[in-house]
Fold these 2 entries.
Entry 1:
Amino acid sequence: MLASGRGSNLQALLDALGPADAPGRIAVVISNRADAGALERARAARIPAAVTRGDGQDADGLLALLREHGAELVVLAGWLKQVPGSVVAAYRDRMLNVHPALLPAFGGPGMYGHRVHEAVLASGARLTGVTVHLVDEQYDHGTIIAQWPVPVRPGDTADTLAARVLAVEHWLLPAAVRAACTQIAADARVRPLCGAADAFALATNHEPSHSHALVPA
Ligand code: GRF
């Protein structure tokens, strides 16, 4: 897992992958900031935590760390650096990112954190959401694996919208990672998930029934 921020998505993954029968486990948490909350959470969970620059000059170092810990899947959550091309190539179709909007809208260079939610509010969109996608050489661009909508409500600020979106990240990312682990263990491609229950949930105003609503497309 590559995480440079507070690590709330890391915590959601730790919780989801905690059970002994989970389809995967977190091998290492890597941050480009020594003071990242994500590293604290990793240490508290007794998971190896490492700091590296993670930029283009550090591609070999990042790759060495991932290999040393036997990473088969790389998950980015709050990782702001562009992943070096050689690392993307080494983990082609094996690297996921979570983005706090419905890509391809509100993504790309400079679109991170509150900037995303401010842009959504400024656009007048009534719907935003969460996207989990494969990482390729361009920011926020690879194949979309899972998405879930989040309403924009009257009076929303970037803070209130961010909190509503983050709550969805906390179950959508673990659902996508669990599915990816299962697919990798079966030697299969990491492929898109669709929300079987989402149309029903939206139409009936029911809360979606979370991860078990997601099935391979
Ligand atoms: C999340 O909103 C994620 O979508 C974005 O960065 C934020 C990370 O939050 N890429 P956290 O560090 O997991 O709490």
Entry 2:
Amino acid sequence: MKPDLFEAPDYYNIDDLLTEEHKLIRDAARAWVKRDVSPIIEEAAQKAQFPKSIIPGLAEIGAFGPYIPEEYGGAGLDQISYGLIMQEIERGDSGVRSTASVQSSLVMYPIWKYGNEEQRKKYLPKLATGEWMGSFGLTEPDHGSNPAGMVTSYKDKGDHYLLNGAKLWISNSPFCDVAVVWAKNEEGRIHGLVVERGMEGFSTPETHNKWSLRASATGELIFQDVKVPKENLLPNKSGLGAPLGCLDSARYGIAWGAIGAAMDCYDTALRYSKERIQFGKPIGGFQLQQKKLAEMITEITKAQLLALRLGQLKNEDKATSAQISMAKRNNVDMALKIAREARQMLGGMGITGEYPIMRHMMNLESVITYEGTHDIHLLITGLDVTGLNAFK
Ligand code: TGC
Ligand code: FAD
């Protein structure tokens, strides 16, 4: 892959709206991605290997639990800092951001919010340093967009719970030390349980042959009569709203992350358009190519403003789930469209691993599907504005 010459676009001087702390945190993450992610990520993706060597670096830039209080090992940052870190990581690769999203919003968040003090103290500090890695099991083979239908369940056996079922499409599963798993009790109520690697009957086979998120490990979580200690049940929230609450946090991070992928595609295409000569002049001098670049920077700028405003609302604890859905849907769609256009601007070179665009494009096909598909988020907005449920 060519050297990483990334320069972040800021067409509307959005930096002026950030604090000095935001910029320091963002710049540290940006520098780390340039130094430690860019040189290795193409090979990791080509080989379909999660680069475990970057785990300590992710912890150092605060990517594991950015907004979790410091007393539990988190970075104690605000929501805009969290967003900026996700943006910078996904500028490197969506799969690396996935690993951080899952660890922070889908594993640390539920333990912090729905767990008791013993659980927080046991798990959060080790998750914050990356000593333990986590996964989040909601999706099942027959229940993706409709998690309420899940069949994974547990029975009360007196001194422990007996867990049975299977989860599919689980990021980090092949190497996770702990999994936050959503399962129904005998009354059909959904609860979260922390399942630990090594528990008998618990296995995590990897899903192979992905054309997307190849630098992220994806797999299953299989439970065959797993004895889960009673103290591993998250006691403070139950029902579908519990996992969906975690998704709100992760979807918010994705709304920022997608901007990073889009910025990298735009920046690469812009530079290429000034260097690549055809018909005696740089291709950036042709109107058709300028149309693409002008539309890209316009959409990136709109997405930046949407994410920043959402971050302000999150900081004030005022962001609604529907507002988060709108930002996730818009910004991922924006990034995927930019990746497709940018790839075309590089002609044949666009399909190679010399440039990051094709990798971003393929990754974004997963990002537009997970954490609620593009269609599901549209229906959430539809329900919010009409009050009429079109899911069922
Ligand atoms: P519905 O009846 O609407 O709601 C059930 C209960 O949940 C509450 N609720 C929410 N709470 C918090 N945040 C949200 N976003 C919420 N949305 C709904 C709701 O108030 C209700 O509470 P209560 O107390 O009344 O019971 O539920 P439904 O069954 O009709 O489903 C609604 C729907 C379709 C929107 C929901 O199921 C959905 O979002 N489906 C998409 C599934 C999804 O996003 N899966 C993601 C799996 S994890 C993942 O993809 C990780 S990828 C990670 C990576 O690698 O980065
Ligand atoms: P389906 O729900 O079967 O949907 C298929 C199509 O039908 C979609 O286009 C959808 O929009 C449409 N559709 C569904 N319902 C409706 C409706 N009511 N109206 C209109 N259209 C509808 N899950 C986890 O729990 N943890 C993870 O860590 C995780 N990581 C993932 C990593 C990757 C790489 C991928 C690809 C997925 C991951 N997922 C994870 C699962 C992801 O959240 C699901 O794939 C997603 O929610 C969609 O579910 P599905 O694939 O079963 O599609």
